[in-house]
């Protein structure tokens, strides 16, 4: 069974994340969405809220039965090993993402060369969507519904008000 891990902060999950999830589930028999607890950022939503929003959004997908949402703390490669995963999925929005992601992939490979990183480019119409920008648009009163699900929009708007 080929298991892939798609890690991230997901604060909150966007339509860009959902696009990567839908394509990543086609690469693996099982996809584990790994919500990171140890992050240098200060998230707007706690880890349980982020995981629950993801669970809600992926439940509607055709392949939802092959997707699991888990929270993790510590090294991603250790989490991947615990999950018996052989693939780490990383989404790329722009060329500027690549340098950082390439460094992470190289470090992860040094820590555990049994887990390979696969980069999926963002869909062209979603490349500009970033959680931090969506949060800023919400905070400033803009319409975020084109960028996140209705469920996430409701949570986010309630939080920033």
Task: Please tell me the total number of domains.
Answer: 1
Largest sheet: 5 strands, parallel
**Number of separate strands:** 5
CATH fold node name = Rossmann fold
Total DSSP helices: 6
| Residue share in helix | 40-55%
Rg, nearest Å: 15 Å
* CATH A-level architecture: 3-Layer(aba) Sandwich
Tell me the fraction of residues in β-strands, as a range. 15-25%
Specify the overall morphology: globular
* Strand order in the largest sheet: 3-2-1-4-5
Mean pLDDT: 95
| N to C succession of SSEs | EHEHEHEHEHH
First-to-last CA distance: 45 Å
Q: Can you identify the CATH superfamily? A: HUPs
Model regions low in confidence, pLDDT < 50 over at least 5 residues: none
Main CATH class: Alpha Beta
What does this 3D model show about the protein?
The protein is of the alpha/beta class and 161 residues long. It has helices at 15-24, 47-58, 76-82, 95-111, 131-139, 150-160, and strands at 3-8, 30-36, 67-72, 87-92, 116-121. It has a five-stranded parallel beta sheet with strand order 3-2-1-4-5, with helices on both faces. It is globular and about 45 Å long. The mean pLDDT is 95.
Give the key terms.
161 residues; alpha/beta; Rossmann fold; 6 helices; 5 strands; 41% helix
Chain-wise SSE layout:
Layout: E1 3-8, H1 15-24, E2 30-36, H2 47-58, E3 67-72, H3 76-82, E4 87-92, H4 95-111, E5 116-121, H5 131-139, H6 150-160
Parallel strand pairs: 1-2, 1-4, 2-3, 4-5
């Amino acid at each position: 069974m080929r298991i892939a891990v798609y890690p991230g902060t997901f604060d909150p999950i966007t339509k860009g994340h959902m696009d990567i999830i839908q394509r990543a589930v086609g690469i693996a028999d099982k996809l584990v969405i790994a919500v990171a607890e140890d992050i240098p950022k200060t998230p707007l939503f706690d880890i349980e809220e982020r995981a629950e929003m993801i669970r809600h959004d992926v439940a509607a997908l055709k392949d939802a039965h092959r997707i699991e949402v888990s929270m993790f703390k510590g090294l991603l490669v250790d989490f991947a090993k615990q999950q018996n995963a052989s693939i780490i999925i990383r989404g790329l929005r722009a060329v500027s993402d690549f340098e950082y992601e390439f460094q992470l992939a190289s470090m992860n490979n040094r820590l555990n060369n049994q887990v390979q990183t696969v980069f999926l480019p963002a869909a062209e119409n979603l490349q500009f969507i970033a959680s931090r920008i969506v949060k800023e648009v919400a905070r400033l009163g803009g319409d975020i519904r084109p960028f996140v699900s209705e469920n996430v929009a409701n949570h986010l708007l309630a939080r920033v008000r």
